[in-house]
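Re: the 421-residue chain
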Amino acid sequence: MSAVPASPASSGSPEPDRRELVDKLRIDRSAAGAAPRRSRIRNRAVATAVVAALLLAALLALFGRGEVPEVKTAVARAAGEMPADTSVLDASGYVVARRQATVSAKITGKVVEVLIEEGMHVDENAVMARLDDTEAKAQLDLARAQLDAARASLDVFTADEHQAERDFARQQALAAAKATSTQEEEQAGAARDTLRARVENAKEQIKVAEQSVDVAKVQLDNTEVRAPFAGVVVAKAAQPGEMISPISAGGGFTRTGIGTIVDMDSLEIEVDVNESFINRVSAGQPVQATLNAYPDWKIPGKVIAVVPTADRNKATIKVRVAIDVKDPRIVPEMGVRVAFLSTASPGSRTGVWVPNEAVVSPAGRPAVFVYEKGAVTRKDVTLGESTQADRQVTGGLAAGQHVVLSPPPSLENGAAVHATD
């Protein structure tokens, strides 16, 4: 009896393994379709969130996160409340001396003595230094000797003249008696006239000798260097043994001055004012000066003059200011701040005054923003005078109203704001 082959299902054939492999390779279309749907949903959600964020940012930028803008305000002051000494302009300058001199000798000579030191007060005509006077004294002695000789010659010629007068008178008497010749009479007269001329010449020589003595005295006096006016020595420029000359010797070894003195009573202030604001300054205008070294000390003064010329390089005009007080703390070349005060003209006592930064000029029309009950109102105003910090408003604004300082360009009429003083 022959054997019957076993069926694949019962014989443990590998067919079932191949079927499982095929099943694993088969695409599950239900899972593949679900993944793209989830991805599309997620992308839509992200896009929606981005759009919402952009809209929120735009709204915050447009409406300021719901907050009203914050502004500073100031109260409009009545003109009568403004102090008369309000500053209309501030400028910087320096203390200068109108009377200052570097003192030198009139002649060239060697310094033998210096009698000054920095900080010393000297009187007018006081001796500051002495030069070698040996040659000057010798010249003076020579001039005096020449004067003595001229005077001696005059004595001799005067005696000879007297004798000639007597001889001439004798010859005239003899000639009248016919006891002498006319020639002898004429010779006696000529001798007399000659001696008279010599006497006159001797007198002129004496005058010349006297002038020579005076010149020699001046030369001797020039060996002493004197102060031209009373003041304080601020610089000492020479020492004993050095050469000094009224002109530069060119070699650098000869001094041209003994020292520098300053008349402290001539101190004043020089200020360079921008030419755009020079219309705020006038002669006689009161000022208040503050030294950089003493910021708490207010020094009164007044404008002496506005120098009638401008500096084209700096676009400034020089202003001279007098100092009303004398004080040893004020010294030349000190830095100073000058406040030019208002002269309080009759027109400045009307209307109200507001800070300069409260006034705006859109389209060339001056206006202010008035704050009241959480909102602002734009009001056109009429302007008057101006100072360094304030502006006069003669129309359109009342005293006591609150005005916005430095209003932003975006501020509109009727806008809600939060005000701080």
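Confidence is low (pLDDT under 50) at residues 1-14.
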